[in-house]
Amino acid sequence: MRDNRSRRDDEARLFCHQLKKRKISSSSMNGYGMRPGIILLREGTDTSQGKAQLISNINACQVVSDAVRTTLGPRGMDKLVADGRKVTISNDGATIMRLLEIEHPAAKTLVDISMSQDAEVGDGTTSVVLLAVEILKQMKSFVEEGVHPQIIIRHIRSASSLAVKKVRELAVSFDINTPEGEEMLLKTASTALNSKLIATHQDLFAPMIVDAVKSLSKEVDGLDDLRGMIAIKKIPGGDVRQSFLVKGVAFKKTFSYAGFEQMTKNFTNPKVLLLNVELELKNEKENAEVRIEDPEQYQSIVDAEWQVIYDKLDACVACGANIVLSKLPIGDLATQYFADRGLFCAGRVEDGDLKRVAKATGATIQTSTNGIFEGVLGTCANFEEKQVGDERFNLFTGCPNSLTSTMILRGGSEQFIAESERSIHDSLMVVKRSLKSQAVVAGGGAIEMEVAKYLKEHALTIEGKGQLVVNAFAKALEIVPRQLCDNAGFDSNDILSSLRRKHTQDEDGKWYGVDIENGDIMDTFVAGVWEPSDNKSNSLASASEAACVILSIDETVINPRSQDPGAATGMMGGGMGGQKPLSNMMGGAMDAVNAQKGGSRSGNLGNGVSYLKGRGGG
């Protein structure tokens, strides 16, 4: 009995061995009483794994970083990116990374951390990419030597948390309500503009930026909606020094109908009514059907249409408003009606501008003209329509709620103004972050060198491979001062040697960084090169996390896009032994039934009907 059982086991093993050696179709497998074959990956799928794949990902990230490496610092170069429709000139890391349209799956992680840094802090979008790639570059040798990625990742995270903790210990706190605090904010705004196209106009833009952001800090959650409360309007032409800040709301004159020029364009202490209502004579639709028995009844219908619009206009005037703004169109009849009564109106106002006016004036946006009372109206000290360049702007100033501000940017070319807007945005975010954290650190590579020195000292207390990983992490931080030197045309080896010696031997050398002007080292804190401590903390944390994500990838599977939409259906059909898919069988049954009734619901058209050529036709 045991011999029979062992014989059956041998036969089963032999059968399985034959199945592995031969490719058996689904139909033949069904003949043996087995399940159909399961296709795991689509034909053409690219799979790669192991150490070679990890090194390939690191190499791809290094190529991406080379695209933004030269944009770092005050002496960074600009990049021109053309996509066939628009030309962009910028040295903003997040903008360049977004426009490059990177296809490599692992390298896209660098785009994500750059965009995250831009949204969270505003500045440091290039340095966060360089830090992440330099960490990967330093860890590449460990991967090649066979160190397990999880060991590397564990010590990278440990070093990152120590670095962030050290930055917070080194940060210098300040009080924004003192003159010294005001100077801190101006210095952080100027430092953010140092590497931008408008760096030579810091004296103009830095005070404007600080004033705009400080007005938001008067409310508890005011800083959270910075983009909604501070608008940036671009007007081509003129000199960049003609840019100015409106402490209130300003927006470009909207589309206007006849009678607009007769309106009053200047008010003192006006009442402002905001609507989301269309003030335009509406005709009945073409396919509307109205049955009348007497021709006079038709006139009553026309009179009713006019009465509807007049009732709306009378309600707007009766509430006591001097200015009427609407998100929807205000037609020629309403424009002339308001002009005759000394009111100002504007339709098709952008949603963001309308919300800023509501926030500034205290008005409430109404969705109906019924029941308007004085409590929903807003007010401001002055309203005027002003010519700025070739455009006319509506300005609300002296608003009771001084949260909102509008910056009007001028410049010779569209590319220059667009880059100025990105620079202003970065500086606004930096000042916002400074107000929230109320702590700064020195820039110019000083904080990176001090943290690197601390990590090297800490590495001596670690046993095993972790010591080498933490040392490599510390060396990676030196990429920021090194790249600042390279971009300025100085010898980075000499300057980094001086910085290491200064930070190691001198107790007062913790704020020494790169002197861009003279090609030497200097105390960047005394020189006023200040950055928010949150900027550096976020950069270190994001770069370390991105490096850990890429190091944790041991296999990449890239599925090709199917060229034939029915490819999947065909493969399933083959697996069913050549049978038609269920949908086709159902469709055939429907055709057979409908053909008996003289019509068709699927496949063939009914009798006497042919396809129409054109949109949707055959």
Task: Write a concise synopsis of the structure shown.
Helix content is 49%, strand content 14%.
Write the layout of secondary structure elements.
Layout: H1 2-21, H2 26-31, E1 46-49, H3 51-68, E2 79-82, E3 87-90, H4 93-99, H5 108-120, H6 125-144, H7 149-170, E4 172-173, H8 179-194, H9 202-216, H10 226-229, E5 230-236, E6 244-246, E7 248-252, E8 266-268, E9 271-275, H11 295-318, E10 323-326, H12 332-340, E11 344-346, H13 351-361, E12 378-379, E13 382-388, E14 391-397, E15 405-411, H14 414-437, E16 439-442, H15 446-459, H16 465-477, H17 479-488, H18 492-505, E17 512-515, E18 520-523, E19 530-532, H19 533-551, E20 555-558, H20 567-575, H21 582-596
Parallel strand pairs: 5-15, 9-10, 10-11
Antiparallel strand pairs: 1-20, 2-3, 4-16, 6-15, 7-14, 8-13, 9-12, 13-14, 16-19, 17-18
Please mark out the parts with pLDDT under 50 across 5 or more consecutive residues, or reply none.
19-34, 565-618
How far apart the termini lie comes to 71 Å
The secondary-structure class comes to alpha+beta
**Average of the residue pLDDT scores:** 80
Share in helix: 40-55%
**Binned strand content:** 5-15%
- Total helices: the number is 21
Number of strands: 20
